[in-house]
Amino acid sequence: MLVEVKDLTKHFGKLTAVCGIQFSIPAGEAFGLLGPNGAGKTTTVSMMCGLVVPSGGDVVIDGHSILRDPMAVRRIIGVVPQDVALYPTLSARENLTFFARMQDVPANILASRVDAVLDIVQLADRQKDRVETYSGGMKRRINIAVGLLNQPKLLILDEPTVGVDPQSRNSILETLRELNRQGMTLLYTSHYMEEVEFLCTHIAIIDHGKVIADGTQKDLRLQAGNKDIINVQLVREADDTVRDRLAALPGVDTVELRDKTVRIATNQGRSLLAGVISTLDDAGCPVSTIDVKEPNLEDLFLNLTGTSLRD
Amino acid sequence: MKFWHIAVKDLKVRVRDRSAFVVLLILPMAMIIVLGTVFNWTGSSFTANVAVVDLDRGDMAKRLMQDVFASSQLKDLLVVTTVATEAEARSLVEQGKTGAAVIIPAGFSKGVSAGTKVSIIVLGNPETATQAGVIRNVIESFTAEVQRRQLAASIAVRTLQQSGAVPPQRMQEAVQGVLDEVSTSQQTDTVSVTTTTQEGVKVPRALDYYAVGMALLYLIFTANTGTEGMLEERCQHTLSRVLATPTSRVQVLLGKLVGIFAIAALQFTMIIALTRLLYRVNWGASVPAVIVMAAATVLAGAGLSTLVAALARTPEQAGAVGPAVALIYSLLGGTMWPVYNMPAWMNSVSRLTFTRWSLEGFTSLMVNGGGVSSILRPVGVCLAMAAVFLLISVTVLNRNYQ
Fold first, then answer.
1. ipTM of this complex
2. Band of pLDDT at residue B274, cut at 50, 70 and 90
3. Are A155 and A185 spatial neighbours (Cβ–Cβ below 8 Å)?
4. CB–CB of A53 and B247 under 8 A?
């Protein structure tokens, strides 16, 4: 395992921000830490970087304990904080050069390393401009570039897309997925379920400082225990005969009929769509609209905590 | 060397902030020029123009002209014009072309020798009352000297006559010897570049003192901008980002300290150079000593700034605490009024401020003209205070990240 988080705990006075968190990340994985605001994600990440001293537990990254050898850990990790942490009156290149020096990037390769990360975030053409003149999305990309300067074994990203427009967000996520494909291990925290689902193969859901669910996306969906829901809007009202014919389809668990709306619970989701449409047509009830809602992490979080991720 | 990169980065950030650049470097220079103009801080300071008419042409008049009006001690104070007649002198005074006129009447020297009452006339007009007053004081000093010599000569003659130690034919020569001795003794007593307080402590000229005070005042406020800079870093999260790299907190603080030091040192150097060039402020004879004292002072100021930044949790706190600390250090440190005029208790308390020690160091260089060895104590105290400030800052910063 590249990362082992062992019984990590942090108290701030009487408040327990993180309570005995445990997880591990194999090399090359994109690991998501999903949870609502205030769940303890940033505190966990801060302890992993050595910025906050744990009240209990330890973090071991590539064999180095954050408690015993924080400098060794900091040499092999890259950190992208939640906020844009750049000097606004310096240019992108000046910012990157400064942070590269702080990251102990050797002087003889410093310039080429800065060029390389500028290429990755596609901002080489604006490198001489002051960061204060950048758009929000561009600042976020430079913010990520700083985390890549030391070619880290583990890149820790703490909600790196907060406040970013959809286009920039997609660009950032694509960049990160490409880095992961190239072998970089990612730890990505977010309260955006879609981002974690898009990027991460393994996810831990965190709430009130505790990991409440942990596993691959498939595992977690199974944990959610929900069926796919096919919602059908009909042109005219259907009768009980139609309901019975739908219920007889293989894979259908339940069918609810109300006026012109049909709600079908199934384990087969999209593969059942053709059969449903055909059955309704045969019964003289043409379909106006149809959609499939698959169970997701939001549902799992709702099941486990009784609240929404965005609450 | 990371601290160096941090310091260079800080300087870049500071230089690009035009308002800070103006406040730190341009404003102090402008303030010094304005204050220097308002308070007439010229190196030549006060001068009095005087027209002199010698209607006597005797020995005593010559002595007045040579020993007083042409003396090296008064050459910067008096601008003397010799005129031929009293009417001409009066005309110059009336027209305001000269501040005062001195008329040595005919028979002045003979009268003095004979011990009869003689007088020197000093003319002035209301518009030049100060200059006339100065001339009057000069003449009074001269006449007092003449009276002393007359008295000395009278006593000497009487004593010599009574004792019979000197033959009558050598009496005049002996009396002249006594008079010369009196004169030399008096001159030695009056030659003094510095003034002396009631307690007998040497102090610099007011101009020199306030030049140091102003330099220290600006140093404190410059250090305060360093505090704000550090808190800015905390607010824009760059401080955390740097601390998430393999960079120790000591390196970060050292870098900050060097950055503040560089700005303050530049400012200090400019103030010293400007006051020296424009107002002939005497910063002492030893350039290395001035540099060492300035460096120790700036280090202490930068250390204080680092400490305030470490203690303040928000920019708002720093905004309130920073100027308060600056004001206390200015008031107690003697930058606004002389420390030797402070009440005893305040004088004692002021020794807790590095500004007081720095002021002592600089003023010592000004009045005593010593070298580095003469200011080891104030330099040592300033450096010790800088070390304490830095140590506490590191401790507080470590505690904040626990």
1. 0.80
2. confident
3. yes
4. no
